[in-house]
Amino acid sequence: MTEIDLGLGVLDHQLVDSDRHRCGKVDDLELEGIQEGRPHVTEILAGPAWEHRGLVGGLAARIAKRLGRGGLVHVPWGEVERIRFGIRLRRPAHELGLDRGEERARRIVEKIPGASL
Amino acid sequence: MKTIFSIALGILAAIGGFVDIGDIVFNVAAGATFGFELLWAVLIGVGGIITYAEMCGRVATVSGAAVFDAVRERFGFSVGLVALVAGQIVNLMTLAAEVGGVALVLELLSGLSYRVLVLLAVVALAIVLWTMPFGWIERVFGYGGLCLLVFAVAAIKLNPDWGAVAHGFVPSTGSGNGWVYAYYVVGLIGAAMIPYEVYFYSSGAVEEQWGPEDLGLNRANAVIGYSLGGLLSFALMISAGALLLPEGISAELLGTVALVADVPLGQIGLLLALIGILFAVSGAAVDSAFSGAYNVAQFFGWEWGKYRHNAGAPRFTLAWVVMLVLSFAIVITGIDPIMVTELSVVASVVALPLTYVPILLVANDRAYMGEYANGRLGNLFGVLYLLVVLVIALAAIPLLLLSNMGQG
């Protein structure tokens, strides 16, 4: 077991799926067992989970909600394969629900000729 | 293994890609106003861009994290978002200035109406970004920008007082209006260290899929490419100082810049100067449009990169399209591109610390960078330049007002 600093080494780091596609950031972490004195991470939150991320974060989260965009995605911690230069996940983004924003944009881009260039 | 030839090609592109509209405007105006007295400020700026380009290129090469990955990881969401917004405002202003510059050069070459040429410039840039692979984009504009070497020939042919030129590399308080002089110091350093260059450079290392074996290439590109690129800035200031200052010509028009090559070298000099400016400024427009897309994608964790193809990184693709559309909306109003250029350089100076602090922190993190973390020399220059950047960031806006935008 190596020791990692959750604040510096996980939070705000890049999520990379099993096909090596970038698929969001670690926007927040869900912890359990704090009361029992045995805190452990249960979930990664990806999407506008910025309420607890400072004043600007709270404002950005409110705006994101108002726009009704990019729903919050919960990724169980067990899906994490390794942590080194990004958080590598065990499955492709679409299986984890992490591809929705990208798919919406893809539908627009694919209408333009030469989208595969 | 990369051959010496391909390394040399990369360095050539870095030289030609160094100069943008901000460098052209500030170096020629400084030469026309203060002769060679401000060459030292350019030297400081070139040292700064070498230091930070090498550093962020190394971070990206080792870890795959480009500038706004580092900003997000080190500053967290809230402060990072402030840095992102500041960076994007600067990118957009820079892009607008470059697009306006492209249209101005096309106007000088064709005589068509400025507004039509703005539209033409934006459409042409969009087609280039949509269709060309990354390596081509980087090279084509870099090589075309090498035509600016005509200014080096012009500087020599104008036979300036070389003693005075050498003296210009020693920092001095300058003659004439002190506020204007100080404003030019900030502008020249800021133009050389304009932030999109490090955004683009670090993301480019990922685009080119550099690995640790390319760290030598990274160093060569940053050190050799940018110092030789800096020579073009020196040449602009020296030729403007030798030609415009004695005649009392101020340099508020881009045509005056081309004239600097026309007088000593004739028609061919003029043509090369215009083509060089066209490629250099178009290349900078491309870089700053992409930088806007890189920054937002890296901050929110979207897929990014030209190597992913247009539909493979769709939000990134839409982001640079939006950058181009917004810059068009700014420039088509008819706002003076030279003024936008000056404002964009001043704004970028103010935003610089927000970019440089996280890069310096990540480059020093041994847990992250391992054996490739900053050494003593890297840190000495890194901290030194961070101080320079902090000082000019604080001074920039007061000097803009006190010097009446350099008009005195």
Describe the overall structure.
- The complex is a heterodimer of chains A (117) and B (408).
- Chain A has a single domain (6-109), classed as Roll (SH3 type barrels).
- In chain A, 27% of the residues lie in helices and 26% in strands.
- Chain A has 117 residues and is α+β, with helices and mostly antiparallel strands.
- Chain A is globular and about 55 Å long.
- The mean pLDDT of chain A is 90.
- Chain B is mainly α.
- Chain B has one domain (9-402): Amino acid/polyamine transporter I (Up-down Bundle), CATH 1.20.1740.10.
- Chain B is built from 17 helices and no strands.
- In chain B, helix 4 crosses helix 5, helix 9 (178-192) packs across helix 17 and helix 11 (215-247) crosses helix 12.
- Chain B is globular and about 55 Å long.
- Chains A and B meet through strand 2, helix 2 and helix 4 of A and helix 4, helix 13 and helix 14 of B.
How do you describe this structure in short?
The complex is a heterodimer of chains A (117) and B (408). Chain A is α+β, with helices and mostly antiparallel strands and 117 residues long.
Q: Which helices and strands appear, and what pairs or packs with what?
A:
The complex is a heterodimer of chains A (117) and B (408).
Chain A: H1 6-9, E1 14-16, E2 22-25, E3 28-32, E4 40-46, H2 54-67, E5 73-76, E6 80-83, E7 87-89, H3 93-96, H4 100-109
Parallel strand pairs in A: 1-7
Antiparallel strand pairs in A: 1-2, 3-4, 4-5, 6-7
Chain B: H1 4-16, H2 21-34, H3 39-63, H4 67-110, H5 114-131, H6 134-145, H7 150-157, H8 162-168, H9 178-192, H10 196-207, H11 215-247, H12 254-265, H13 267-300, H14 314-331, H15 337-364, H16 366-369, H17 376-402
